[in-house]
Design brief:
9 strands; about 130 residues; about 70% strand; globular; eight-stranded antiparallel beta barrel; AOC barrel-like
Length: about 130
């Protein structure tokens, strides 16, 4: 049976050095630092790799972040894996709990998260199961 969690989050992205420093590269590497509020009261740290294109409204990114905190009263950590693309302005994003990454009271956690950005505010919807 799936459980639904929702809330807001604050995020800080900071540039990190790239392995590819070729002139004109459209790649970026960023650190992720988040604070989740609501049903998930947690912090996360991670890294993002992104690629822009000559078409300003097309891009892609992947990211991994380790989330640590309390999900509906259960304390623990887990890892989220992101895969996102923007095709001429049309976004597609999948954020999945890495299998078997849950520890402590979150062992057996599976699920998918959605991110909503509206009026400059970030929020999340998280559908998950605990086995």
């Amino acid at each position: 049976m799936s459980t639904h969690a929702a809330g807001t989050f604050d995020v800080k992205l900071s540039p990190l050095p790239l392995a590819d420093t070729s002139e004109g590269t459209l790649l970026a590497r960023l650190s992720i630092d988040k604070q989740f509020h609501g049903d998930l009261d947690a912090t996360s740290k991670g890294e993002m790799l992104s690629a822009g294109t000559a078409v300003k409204t097309s891009a892609g990114y992947v990211a991994i972040e380790r989330v640590s905190g309390i999900l509906h009263g259960r304390r623990g950590t887990f890892v989220l894996q992101h895969s996102g693309t923007m095709t001429r302005g049309a976004p597609a994003l999948t954020i999945t709990v890495v299998p078997d990454s849950g520890v402590d009271e979150l062992v057996g956690l599976t699920g998918e998260m959605s991110i909503i950005i509206a009026n400059g505010q970030h929020s999340y919807e998280f559908d998950y199961t605990l086995s």
